[in-house]
Task: structure prediction
Amino acid sequence: MAAVVMDGKALAAEMKEQVRLRTEQMTRRPGMAVVLVGEDPAALAYEAGKRKDCQACGIYYDTFRLPSEVCQEDLLGVIDTLNRREDIDGILLLLPLPGHLDEKAALLAIRPDKDVDCVNPANLGQLLLGGGSLRPCTPAGVMRLLEAYHIDPAGKRCVVVGRSHVVGKPQALLLLEKNGTVTICHSRTPDLAAECRRADILVSAAGRPGLITGDMVKEGAVVIDVAMNRNAQGKLCGDVDYEAAAEKAAWITPVPGGTGPVTRAVLMEQVLSAALDHGKG
Ligand code: NAP
Result:
C-alpha cells in the first residue's frame, strides 16, 4: 500500500494565512513574547522561527533573552511584566531552564489566558476536564492534521508512544476527547511492538530514531511521527523508519514537513485566539 503523505507544511501555510487575514482586519494587533534563558543554539534557532512566524502572521513580537545565570526572582519579574503588558497576548517560556531555576514555579507564573502553549497546570487541568481554549501546540497540531485528512479517531485504537507533559499525555487526552480508545506507551512498556501493531492511529513522540520499524505498523494504519531527532549523519529524522512504515500505512507524516510546521501554526492561532479573548479586534 502506498501511504498518503500528510503534508504538514501545506496545512501550516494555510493556517498561518488564515491568521494573517484575520490580524489584518484588527485595529489592535495580537502580540507574543518569547522568554529565552541562556544561549543554547537550538533554542536560539527556535526563537528565530517564532519571530519569523509572527512577522508572517501580522503578530507583534518581542523577545527577552536572559543570561543563563539569571536568578529566579528576575525571571519571575520578566514574566510578571509580560503578564501585565496589554500589547502581549501570549507568552512562551522556552524550556528546559538551567538547573538552578524552578521550572514549575516559572510555568505557574504565566497568566493562564496568556499561556499559549498550555504549560500552566491550570490550563492542563482544563484540558483534563475537556475545556479551555488553549491547547498544547504539538498535540493540538496532530489533531489538526487528522482533521485535515478526514481521519476521525472515534472508535479507533490509538497508541501514543511517549508520556511527557508537553506531547504524550496531552496527545492521549485529545485523542480520548475525540473518542479514540487510547493506549500510552513509554520506556517501561514490555512489548512496544505488539502495542504498536494494534494501532489504527500510531503517534510516536519518544525522541528515538528508528524506534518504530515497519513490522510494528499495522496494515492501513495512520502513522504520525512527532519526534525531531538528528540521525548519525546529523539529518533531521523522526522515530519512525519512514520508508518501511510507508509501505504498510495508509497515511503517514514525513519528518521534516509533518507535525513540526503545524505545531508552529497552532501557536500562531492560539496567540490570535488569546488576543480575541483579550478584547482585541
Ligand atoms: P521526552 O520528555 O524526552 O519524552 C519522551 C518519552 O518517550 C518518554 O515518555 C519516554 O518514556 C518515552 N520513550 C523513550 N524511549 C522509549 C522507548 N525506547 N520505548 C518507548 N518509549 C520511550 O520528550 P518530548 O518532549 O515529549 O518530545 C518527544 C519528541 O518529540 C522529541 O523528539 C522532540 O524533539 C519532539 N517534539 C516535536 C515537536 C513538534 O513540533 N513536532 C514538539 C515537541 C517535541 P519514559 O517516560 O518512560 O522515560
